[in-house]
Each structure stands twice: as C-alpha cells, then as structure tokens.
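Blackboard transcription, Thursday session:
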Amino acid sequence: MKQRNFTQTDRHTFMYPLPKLEIAELIQLAHRSAQVSTECACARASFLCWESIPVSFPESQLQDVGTLMENPFEEPTFVEFHPAGTRYESSNAPIAPRYFPYNRCTISKCLVCERHFLRYTEAGGYFVDKRIRALNPELIVDASI
Ligand SMILES: [Zn+2]
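(Written on the board underneath:)
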C-alpha cells in the first residue's frame, strides 16, 4: 500500500484549520499589503471601512492565511474598541484583534496581488452577510480586553 507523505501544511490543516496570527505577524502582513500598488480586481474598492462583499468582488482569488480568533470553543466578545470616538463603520476605526468584529476575523490574501483583507460573517436572525475590510497597518492596535 502506498503511503502518502503529508507536508507540514497538510498536517497543520488537519489539526488547526487556520493558524492564529499574533499581533506582530498581523502588522507584518498589513505592512506588506500596504506596499502593494499593482492594479488588481480585488482593489477596485478600497474597503477602508467594513463593507458587505460586493458580488463583483473576486472572492475566489482570496486565500485564508490565518485567524484572529483566540479560542474556537468560546464565543468571542461583542464589545468594540473605540477610544477616539470612532464607530464600527468608521474608516479610521482601530483594528483591535481582541475586540469585535476583529476577534472573529480571518485574514485573507489575494493570490494575484498579495493584498490582505479582514473578513468575517455577520449573522443575524434571517441573514448572513459576509463583510470585508482592508488590513491597514496604521490602524492595528494591541489593545487588551
Ligand atoms: Zn488582488
């Protein structure tokens, strides 16, 4: 019987679907993303603030590279972090990984241009809405709960 050799990535995928990104890794990805200036189908909108993913968005180009969820067995808090009076929908709202909605986000990379995005699914009683925001390094804050 032929045995399949699992790569490191395979093994990782079996045990943890997505690696949890630490703040330093997140900032690094964000900086790399901010340097991308090539035109790409994913960059037709800037997604400075949270938006519903438009139907025209090339979602198939995105690959999840990590999660900000601390513990998959615990419901993360819905508390938001806005020390400077921003709101959920503000384009300058901080990206605070321990706070809503960042604490349930995955980080996705565009395979074509390598821009990175935050994504999560907003679920109400009768709807699910997939939302997206650009990963802006200037807005990331390591705020504790
Ligand atoms: Zn792209």
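Lecturer's comment: The mean pLDDT is 91.
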